[in-house]
Structure prediction request, 612 residues.
Amino acid sequence: MFFRFFPVAIISAFGLTSILANIPGGGTAGSDVFLSDSGAEAVLANGLITATIVKSTATITSLKYRSFEMFREGYFSMDGGKSFRVPSHCTYAVKTQTADMVDIGLKSFWHNESEAFDIEIHYVLRRGATGLYSYALLSHPANYPTTSVGEWRMVWKLSSDLLEKIYVDELRHWTMPSSEDFKQASPTGIKEIIKINTGPRAGTFDCKYDFNANYWDLGCWGHASDARQVGAWIVLGSHEFFNDGPTKQDLTAASGINHLHFGLNHYNASSTPAAAGEAWQKIYGPFLLYCNHAASGDACWADAQAQAKAEQAAWPYAWLTGNPLYPPANGRGQITGHFIVQDALKPNVSAANAWIGVAQPDAGGNWQFESKRYQYWVKTDAQGNFTIPNVRPGTYTLSAFTTGAVGEFSKSGITVTASLATALGELTWNVPHQGARIAWEIGVPDRTAKEFRHGKDYFHGYVWANLPQEFPNPLDYYVGQSDWQTDWNYAQTRYAAVGKNAEAWKWRIHFHLDHAPTGTASLTLAIASANRARIEVYVNNERRPLTSVSPSVEGGNALLREGIHAKYCVEYVSIPTGKLQAGENIISLSIPETSGAASHVMYDYLNLELTR
Prediction:
């Protein structure tokens, strides 16, 4: 039997608007949670928010908070174009219904769509909460055909002009154009990018890709208003259900919208496949659709960040029970250890603040391209100690990488048992090198190009159009004199000189050697992103390349999608004896102009290593 629905407006009339700030779920104070079923819609209310959900499609058509309509629409979807799918013909069930919490489920069964998965969406409202929790389950029964899904997301469309500020990270938080400003905007040659001509962002470009970010670096993102003193946020209690590890980015907030991409399908993501005869399931979430109130937009953002920390401290949530895909705290284990980095050529490199985590890639695979299971990552402390909590039981491969070192550490066969700690003790990574000494290096190994020019404004549209005004062709970089923060661009692409067709853009590295090396030298190319790129490498002779390098990991279109990286790889170029000489040397890098407009390389780090 359903609880009787008590309208939020009546409760608000008595002044019950207090919030237990930054307590997961809001706490135990406040009005009872009520559920109303009209047949076509389900309405959840707790005296602070009222949410209306269409049962057949699992869409949110309204979420009211402090008399404001916070939703224009909210929905889940898969893929795009002819393969676009939203839940439909959902079956409705009430999983939990008490005075403290209501959890409703809406399940869409596969009916010959391109993606042969069942989709089950849940919405949860708890006492005292100013947000609605949600989680989703994908299922592929063994009798379903072979399939896969790329884009898999939740979209929260905000009421028009309700919240004027956007917040993603320290670089991207500003007042957005209004709806009228968007009407006055001009199209560009890229359909996703428009030129803003009026309002606070006049003279800039706007695009949903402006706000791409590594999900694991963020606990929340969203919008807020100084005038209305409210905010609307995606808040994450965990990142364990996202694919492709802690360096994976995707869309976050954008104009009038909050994105949550479970599949993280942009920037060269792995799809989620399932074979015929394979029974597979995965749970995504819970996550929180959070509304808050504070004196300013910045204060709302600070509160949302504090709420994210509170949610993470409460993970796994004790209130989500009875689902084998979501084991409780005592059904999970933890991994502890001490990570040590030893680099004979760079002794200052340490394990402090390193990423370390476990995943379950297929044989021969890598955590960068793993989507079917769960991943667990943490940062080490200043001494390299780590604890990876709340890991589902199973056998994992542990990986770790740190700023300053090329490549990564890996150890397979890590077994995790429920309610137990797997103590690994000391894990020592002796960083390998191709040579005995480093002649020179450009950049800092961190899997991004952020230390180079445009490393802090890469997310603005058409940055690449300004490169001919900023750099010559060829670009000449002098080791020991040039500064990579200003003299080395964040991306090497084609050079579109004014009034000329695009042409190859040579980057020359000038350096001095005291004596001619003996033995083979090695050029390290650590690559943060490559897209349709073939790198021609010249050594003291630009008439003919020494070799041509096709990066082993390519794709993602990070340049035109305004990213600072996509997927990482490392390539080594052997330079035979006799190619280098005492005195001045030049190594030139070039991408042939025939590679296409989106082709590029974003270097993470380069060095030259010598045997002696």
Residues 437-610 form a domain with the Jelly Rolls fold (CATH 2.60.120.260).
